[in-house]
C-alpha cells in the first residue's frame, strides 16, 4: 500500500486538487487498491472547510467531484502514517519540517519535482488562476504516479 499525503497551506485550493486528481489517475490505472491518498494543510485556520469554489469548478470541468472533501490540518503523526509527503511549495516544506522536526526518512518532496520543471506551484488563493494550478497538478501527479509504478514494479 502506497500512502500519499499532499500538503499545501490551507488545504482548500492546491492539495485537495492534487488529492482528487491523483485518486482519479490511480483509478484510471486500476491501481486504487494499491493506494491510500489524502491531503492536508499546514495551517489550521481552514479546518473542516469545503474546497475553494475555483478548485471545485475546475475539477467539475474535468469530471471530478470534490463534494466530499473537507480540509484537515497536517499533524506530526501523519509523518509516520504516510510514505510520500508531497508539498506544493517550499514554504509548505518548511512548515512541515517545523511540525515534524527532521525528514529522517526522506519522505518529503514537492509535486513539481516529478516534472521537467521543478519548483513551486503558485497559490491560486492569491493568483485566482486555477487553470495554471490544474495544469501543474495534473503534470505533477502523472510524474509522481510513474515514479511510484516504476519504483515498485506495479502493473
Ligand atoms: P491553498 O491556498 O494552500 O492552496 O489551500 C490557500 C488557502 C487559504 C488561505 C491561503 C492559501 N488562507 O489564507 O485562508
Description:
The protein has 155 residues and is α/β, with parallel strands linked by helices. It has one domain: Rossmann fold. Helices cover 44% and strands 14% of the residues. The chain has a 4-stranded parallel β-sheet. Strand 1 (2-8), helix 1 and strand 2 (35-41) form a beta-alpha-beta unit. Helix 1 packs across helix 6. The longest helix has 23 residues, at 130-152. It is globular. The relative contact order is 0.21. The model has no long low-confidence stretch (mean pLDDT 96). Bound molecules: 4-nitrophenyl phosphate (4NP).
Keywords:
155 residues, alpha/beta, globular, binds 4-nitrophenyl phosphate, single chain, Rossmann fold, 4 strands
Through-space gap between termini: 14 Å
Q: Specify the helix fraction band.
A: 40-55%
- CATH fold topology: Rossmann fold
The tally of helices reads 6
Topology of helices and strands:
Elements: E1 2-8, H1 14-28, E2 35-41, H2 53-61, H3 76-81, E3 84-87, H4 90-100, E4 108-110, H5 124-127, H6 130-152
Parallel strand pairs: 1-2, 1-3, 3-4
Helix pairs in contact: 1-6
The chain binds 4-nitrophenyl phosphate.
4-nitrophenyl phosphate binds at residues 8-14, 41, 45-46, 123, 125.
Task: Please provide a brief summary of the model.
The chain is α/β, with parallel strands linked by helices. Helix content is 44%, strand content 14%.
Amino acid at each position: 500500500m502506497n500512502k500519499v499525503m499532499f500538503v499545501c497551506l490551507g488545504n482548500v485550493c492546491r492539495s485537495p486538487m492534487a488529492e482528487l486528481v491523483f485518486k482519479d489517475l490511480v483509478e484510471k490505472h486500476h491501481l486504487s487498491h494499491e493506494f491510500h491518498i489524502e491531503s492536508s494543510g499546514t495551517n489550521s485556520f481552514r479546518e473542516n472547510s469545503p474546497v475553494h469554489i475555483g478548485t471545485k469548478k475546475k475539477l467539475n470541468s474535468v469530471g471530478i467531484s470534490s463534494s466530499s472533501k473537507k480540509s484537515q490540518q497536517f499533524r506530526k503523526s501523519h509523518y509516520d502514517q504516510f510514505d510520500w509527503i508531497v508539498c506544493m511549495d517550499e514554504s509548505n516544506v518548511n512548515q512541515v519540517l517545523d511540525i515534524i522536526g527532521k525528514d529522517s526518512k526522506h519522505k518529503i518532496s514537492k509535486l513539481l519535482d516529478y516534472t521537467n520543471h521543478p519548483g513551486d506551484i503558485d497559490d491560486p488563493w492569491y493568483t485566482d488562476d486555477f487553470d495554471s494550478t490544474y495544469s501543474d497538478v495534473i503534470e505533477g501527479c502523472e510524474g509522481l504516479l510513474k515514479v511510484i509504478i516504476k519504483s515498485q514494479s506495479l502493473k
